[in-house]
Design a protein that fits this description.
GO terms for molecular function: L-aspartate:2-oxoglutarate aminotransferase activity; pyridoxal phosphate binding. The protein is α/β, with parallel strands linked by helices. Helix content is 46%, strand content 13%. It has 16 helices and 13 strands. Strands 2-10-9-8-7-3-4 form a 7-stranded mixed beta sheet, sandwiched between helices. The chain binds pyridoxal-5'-phosphate (PLP).
Length: 401
């Protein structure tokens, strides 16, 4: 009979592996800035108050049951998510040409999109920014979808390599799929400006590319849901074909509840029907149907004006705390006289700072100072607090000298 003795141990996931090492570290000084999850200024995970209130309301609803959802998920939830992405006044939504399914958070949305591509966009390659959230690449590998990269990061200026990005998108074969981070690029924290987005759109349009907006941080970049959706909505208004993956992990703090959506813009409502029927089949054979609890929370908050306002306020507060920590870290480094320029820490946006530390310096941060960060230089600013910021700055100061 078969045994599994020959199965090689898989390497640790680059991000989750750092977290495992952090857990095993017994140092009292250890700091975890590796995971993209919000922490309070006490370094604790946070459940939003609007979420707790929504859960209390859900408990009171006597008609709530635990029956299966349809493969495509909860119809009301999906409609509310579409509005949040495309806006109340969206022409696409008014003409019923957006196909959207509820998914297992953003990762599930990306995988569903990859499975759809495998069936219906055979031979097309997905172009992904370099660098990116590593799972973008591995999802495509696991799903068997060809992928390649476009230039994004200009290491010298610690900003966007717009010329390289445009050149690579231009060089991609017509009708390719271009993965774009909707807001708060992970890991660089560098987003194109409105003008740069315009240039990216022009090239994508000329090359008839499908643009795949990965929206994992709507509201986290600026603290405002609508501002963070501006680029994606501009592409939608311009009539470019879109895929959109949406996650409520960060902006609702619903990480483990697995709440998200995947959308495809179509030409006609008939095409939407057909596409939805195909998404149903893919979902049926992957996990049958999505979980209800997290979607019920989001549905409750988005459809209750008071809770919706409370959520927007909480979202703003989270993004402000992160911005404060950027300033605090910058100030500490400046007062230490740490060699180099650190203005990128405050100019970058969203959850992460791409510090520019070399892999060797990152290793020292972990091994010598117990500051757990990614080897590519990414620090989760959400893990920085008023208590650990001095310590982190001193560690950076030590490794760059
Ligand atoms: N996309 C990006 C760019 C991310 O950074 C993340 C999470 O870190 C995700 C998607 C998906 O996360 P989740 O599956 O938890 O929604």
């Amino acid at each position: 009979y078969m045994t599994w003795n020959e199965v090689p141990a898989a390497p640790l996931d680059p991000i989750l592996g750092v977290n495992q090492k952090f857990q095993a570290d017994t140092s009292a000084e250890k700091v975890n800035v590796s995971i993209g999850a919000y922490r309070t200024d006490e370094g604790k995970p946070m459940v939003l108050s609007c979420v707790k209130k929504a859960e209390a309301l859900l408990l009171e609803q006597s008609d709530l049951n635990k029956e299966y959802l349809p493969q495509r998920g909860d119809a009301t939830y999906v409609q509310l998510c579409q509005k949040m992405l495309f806006g109340e006044k969206s022409k696409l939504l008014a003409s019923g040409v957006v196909a959207t399914a509820q998914t297992l958070s953003g990762t599930g949305a990306l995988r569903l999109g990859a499975e759809f591509m495998k069936k219906f966009a055979k031979g097309k390659t997905v172009y992904i920014s370099n660098p990116t959230w590593g799972t973008h690449n591995s999802i495509m590998t696991q799903a068997g979808v060809p992928f390649s990269h476009y230039r994004y990061w200009n290491a010298a200026g610690r900003d966007l390599d717009l010329a390289g990005m445009l050149e690579d998108i231009e060089a991609a074969p017509e009708g390719s799929v271009i993965m774009l981070h909707a807001a708060a690029h992970n890991p660089t924290g560098v987003d194109p400006t409105a003008e740069q987005w315009g240039e990216i759109m022009t090239v994508c349009k000329a090359k008839k590319h499908v643009c795949w907006f990965d929206s994992a941080y709507q509201g986290f970049a600026t603290g405002d849901l609508d501002i963070d959706a501006t680029a994606m909505r501009a592409f939608a208004d311009e009539g470019l074909p879109l895929f959109v993956s949406q996650s409520f992990a960060k902006n609702f703090g619903l990480y483990g509840e697995r709440v998200g959506t995947f959308s495809i813009t179509c030409d006609t409502p008939e095409a939407v029907k057909a596409v939805m029927s195909q998404l149903d089949i893919i979902i049926r054979n992957l996990y049958s149907n999505p979980p209800k609890h997290g979607a019920n929370i989001v549905k409750t908050v988005l459809s209750d004006p008071a809770l919706y306002q409370e959520w927007r306020d909480e979202l703003k507060a989270m993004s402000l705390r992160i911005q404060d920590m950027r300033t605090a870290l910058y100030d500490e480094l400046t007062s230490l006289g740490t060699p180099g320029s650190w203005t990128h820490i405050t100019s970058q946006i969203g959850m992460f700072s791409f510090t520019g530390l070399s892999p060797e310096q990152c290793t020292q941060m972990v091994e010598k100072h117990h500051v757990y960060m990614l080897n590519n230089g990414r620090v989760s600013m959400a893990g920085v607090t008023s208590k650990n910021v001095k310590y982190i700055a001193k560690a950076i100061d030590d490794v760059v000298r």
